[in-house]
Design goal:
The protein is mainly alpha-helical. It has one domain (about 5-114). The protein is built from 5 helices and no strands. Helix 2 (about 35-40) crosses helix 3, helix 3 (about 45-70) packs antiparallel against helix 4 and helix 3 (about 45-70) runs parallel beside helix 5 (about 100-114). It is found in: Cell membrane. Keywords: Membrane, Transmembrane, Transmembrane helix, Transport. It comes from Lactobacillus delbrueckii subsp. bulgaricus.
């Protein structure tokens, strides 16, 4: 495999991995709505708002992640994205209320766009 094809394959697999992680997160929130509502002392509609926060984070992050990737490189941007995924998954479980969970949802959207 040539160097150019190897770089393309690595980047493509990173992008697909990011979408895979987002799909897992959306599936978990959708399947365990009552449990998350109980965990965050909120309603099921607020849990669904956290799902929409992931989309909002993705839209907002377009303005941020492009310049970061241009300045520091794609590798740094990917590492930041993976760290944000870890914060997202751990944060959803330990969020004390809906407001914190909503902010963590935005971070999940940023992770997906990184």
């Amino acid at each position: 495999m040539s160097v150019k094809k190897h770089r393309y394959a690595a980047m493509a697999s990173t992008v697909y991995f990011s979408y895979f992680m987002m799909g897992i997160g959306m599936s978990l929130l959708a399947q365990f709505k009552p449990q998350f509502a109980s965990l965050w002392h909120s309603s099921i509609s607020e849990v669904l708002s956290v799902v929409s926060a992931v989309g909002i984070g993705g839209i907002v992050s377009i303005l941020i992640t492009g310049p970061i990737s241009d300045h520091f490189g794609r590798r740094v941007s990917a590492v930041i994205g993976h760290l944000l995924w870890a914060i997202y998954y751990i944060g959803l479980l330990y969020a004390p209320n809906f407001a914190v969970a909503y902010i963590i949802g935005i971070l999940g959207g940023i992770a997906n766009s990184s």
